[in-house]
Amino acid sequence: MTGQHRAAAVLILGLAVLLAAFTDPGHTERGGTPRPEPVAAARTPAAPAPGPDPVTDPPSSLPTGTPRWQAERVLPERGTLVAYYGTPGTGALGVLGETSPAKAFRRLQRAAAPFERPGRPVRPVFELIVSVADAHPGKDRDFHHHVRRSAVREYVDAARELGALLVLDLQTGRSDFLEVAQRWEWALAEPHVGLAIDPEWRVRRGQRPGRVIGRVGAGEVNRTSAWLSRLVVERDLPEKLFVVHQFRTSMVRHIGRVRARDGLQLVQHVDGFGNRGQKLATYRTVARPDIFAMGFKLFYDEDVDLMGAKAVHRIRPRVRFVSYQ
Predict the structure, then answer these.
(1) Can you give the pTM of this predicted structure?
(2) Each residue of 241-253: pLDDT tens digit?
(3) What is the SS3 string spanning the chain?
């Protein structure tokens, strides 16, 4: 190659490099593949890719690698959960069903406000009965029926939009709690939805709900909580509430065998009604704070001299979850 040829080649190569430096390396022809990034452009760091949207693309785990159920606890630190209880479309089973979710939430906020203290936040909760015990056997002869999925979906969506937790309450008649809980997996897979079981309405063959006080064994409680725990851990969900209602020691047989579970906050919710002395006597008789965080129910209609927030805060063992029925 002559000197003139070499000089021309160097000039052409320099122009090519200069042109490449001003070419968009990510440009793609229709139907083609991205061009390789030119050497000259590699010296300039690429712009960082946009991070995931926290709503549409929630991370499978936190940056530290900590599972969500360990990092996102369901009980506020030193705080209190305050709930409205009921079933959709009727006030017969509790205050929650007396009105729409949005109006119920505003009422709940007013009821919850007195429980808040400096450094002790309050978190609102809807506790919704989704499987309701019946006095008659029904076509499946299981003495319970399920609320329509569309009605439950309304509360799932409303709780999410309003910033509340939702707890699905099960009254299962003659059916096993685990069997019925699995029916509601579609809702329990939501990050803000937990589960409650009510042994009062869990009866045996030959028994009818409402005629006897039902009961459940620790084995059935543990099978149900184990399934819910797997759902939380495998889907990397935040910690969920797992609530056990009780007002007699006989309602949960071998309660000392109830096991703690990864991803679940166990709550023993004491449901006795009456005057203040009766309610506190029931609470102290059944309370197992060595196993559970403690819950306490207030009845608008059945309680005599309804307890206020100050009185509830004075209860020991300390109450972490208060619900109104």
Answers:
(1) 0.80
(2) 999 999 999 999 9
(3) CCHHHHHHHHHHHHHHHHHHHCCCCCCCCCCCCCCCCCHHHHCCCCCCCCCCCCCCCCCCCCCCCCCHHHHCCCCCCCCEEEEEEEECCECCCCHHHHCCHHHHHHHHHHHHHHHCECCECEEEEEEEEEEEECCCCCCCCCCEEECCHHHHHHHHHHHHHHCCEEEEEECCECCCHHHHHHHCHHHHCCCCEEEEECHHHECCCCCCECCECCCEEHHHHHHHHHHHHHHHHHCCCCCEEEEEEECCHHHEECHHHCCCCCCEEEEEEECCCCCHHHHHHHHHHHCCCCCCEEEEEECCCCCCCCCCHHHHHHCCCCEEEEEEC
